[in-house]
Amino acid sequence: MTRLLIGLSVLGALISGAALAHVTVDQPTLPADSYVRIAIRVPHGCEGAATTGIRLQVPPELRGAKAMPVAGWALTTRMEGGVTVQGEHGTAHVPREVSWQGGNLPDDQYQEFVLLVRTPAEPGATLYFPVVQDCEGGKVSRWIERPSAPGERLRYPAYSVRITPKG
């Protein structure tokens, strides 16, 4: 019985560590119809290799998205496939993808990549932020999986945020 409990405890710790060891967004919820700063957190490299690039797919439900430059990294946006929306400040072109490339983030260091976004007008949606993490030696981690059922555990989950009523 003791061995079983110890084994289950170790297994639980391993599963918990794996679930936390992925690219995340700093907020689990965002208010509807708001301009919000979000940070994509990169807590580690790829199997010990330094991170050299981050490519983020922008959720099409967003009504605006601007990326913040990171010193030492080249920032690019891909508009092809993005959306154009009308807002109080005129027309906004929401990019399809944002990437930060050419940096060097060692495996034992942490970095945030920041966006200013405008959330959908209505609450209730869940938005996914798929990220591809490029690393030295051609290693790649694709944090792009979306659940097909509530509560499904994924190995490489795309981080999600829920849009809540504006407070």
Detailed description of the structure:
The chain has one helix spanning 2-20; strands spanning 24-25, 29-31, 35-42, 51-57, 64-67, 74-78, 83-87, 90-94, 97-105, 111-118, 126-129, 131-135, 140-143, 159-164. It is mainly beta and 167 residues long. The protein has a single domain, classed as Immunoglobulin-like, CATH 2.60.40. The strands form four sheets. The protein has a five-stranded antiparallel sheet, with no helix packed on it.
Distance between the termini: 50 Å
**Tally of individual helices:** 1
Identify the strand order in the major beta sheet.
6-9-4-12-13
So what's the oligomer here? single chain
Full CATH superfamily name? Uncharacterised protein YcnI-like PF07987, DUF1775
Provide the residue-averaged pLDDT: 85
- Total beta-strand segments: 14
Might you state the CATH topology name?
Answer: Immunoglobulin-like
- The overall number of domains is 1
Shape-level CATH architecture: Sandwich
* Portion in beta strands: 35-45%
How would you sum up the major sheet?
A: 5 strands, antiparallel
Shape: globular
Question: How is the secondary structure organized here?
Answer:
Elements: H1 2-20, E1 24-25, E2 29-31, E3 35-42, E4 51-57, E5 64-67, E6 74-78, E7 83-87, E8 90-94, E9 97-105, E10 111-118, E11 126-129, E12 131-135, E13 140-143, E14 159-164
Parallel strand pairs: 2-14
Antiparallel strand pairs: 1-3, 3-10, 4-9, 4-12, 5-10, 6-9, 7-8, 11-14, 12-13
What brief labels describe this structure?
single chain, 167 residues, mainly beta, Immunoglobulin-like, 5-stranded antiparallel β-sheet, globular, disordered N terminus
